UniProtKB/TrEMBL annotation:
Broadest EC class assigned to this enzyme: oxidoreductase
Pathway: Purine metabolism; urate degradation
FAD-binding domain ranges (all copies): 3-342
Domain of life: Bacteria
Keywords carried by this UniProt record: FAD, Flavoprotein, Monooxygenase, NAD, Oxidoreductase, Purine metabolism
Signal peptide: none
Cofactors, names only: FAD
GO molecular function: FAD binding; FAD-dependent urate hydroxylase activity; urate oxidase activity
Cross-referenced SUPFAM superfamilies: FAD/NAD(P)-binding domain
Catalyzed chemical reaction(s): urate + NADH + O2 + H(+) = 5-hydroxyisourate + NAD(+) + H2O
The protein's name: FAD-dependent urate hydroxylase
EC number: 1.14.13.113
InterPro entries reported in the protein's UniProt record: FAD-bd (IPR002938), FAD-dep_Monooxygenase_BioMet (IPR050493), FAD/NAD-bd_sf (IPR036188), HpxO (IPR047712)
Amino acid sequence: MRIIVIGAGVGGASAAIALQRLGHEVVVHDRMRENRPVGAALSLWSNGVKVLNWLGLGDEVAALGGRMEDMAYLDGRTGEELCAFSLAPVTEQTGQRPYPVARADLQRLLMERVEHLHLGHEMVAIDDDGERVTVTFADGSTDTGDLLIAADGARSRARDHVTGAAEGGPRIERTYSGYTNFNGLVAADPAIGPADRWTTYVADGKRAAVMPVADGRFYFWFDVPQPAGLPDERTDGKAPLEEAFADWAPGVKTLLAAIDPERSLNRVEIWDIDPFHTWTRGRVALLGDAAHNTAPDIGQGACLALEDSFALAISLATNTVSVEDSLRRYAASRSERAGDLVLRARARGEETHGYDPATTAAWYESLRGNDGAGIIRGIVGNITGSPVNLGVGVL
């Protein structure tokens, strides 16, 4: 079949690679003009890495990933270590080491494996006549295929087509999660945290954290609870962070000093979408954030998109009634799990970001002296329901 994919992000590119490997002619279109991903890095937990292994990219992804051996929580104001523990049980129980990776590095790897990629193409319309799907782009050009996979992100235009909002039906709207995330890359520095540890400073509903990625770098992020729609001036640089974390621990001040806003500093308001289950319409199917935009609080956004690619390819390879039937079976296998993880991430954010001060204070207290068993159980619990486990989950 000739398959059109809209979106060359992690979900769209991985879906294209999977479908290419099945022998389909796959064409990917994206409105971006160069590899400029939103966000500096991402967490590839074991379920996401397993999909990349299945795509034949295991060695390359391992080389991009940081060696994250341990996890620790510190008091944001004093720097006191609240708890520290090994992440080895995640690998032991799931059969795969997780890797934090720089998003641009992963994006580049995936895009290099896409055989037919067209950038600068913004989709504006979809026409599905029951036998073929035609996409129209902003420049007036078109493309036609046997089916369309829409991986066009959180603000998906294809989602309106699939759900009927484009014809006047109710529109699925995003929900503000209550905080802004600032992220980027800096050189690893033991004054911030060990180079093989996920280190998180917490206080006042805010977080400052680092994860190791390849080439001696830390992926950093700061979470700041605040209203949506505040002015975002690039000229402000890191001033908003210096204000929000002015009296924090020495490790956080070292991190702030290391940030070069001109090289690597992103500001992202965090939104998600209430789970919904209308992922397909005719020969069009949603994938990734278009289907399940989630907050990053459990680090499963990219992994869910990779799982979608796996499940989509399996469905198209094994179900032969019709294209429409195969897409419906793909969606039925995914929407419940994806919706569950969207809600888990939302609940996690509500616990950690001080919306109810007593709840967050209780969480801080629970970290003191924590042996990590419950935290590991939560991380592994997000992984075990993955379709890539083929019925063999935690051992």
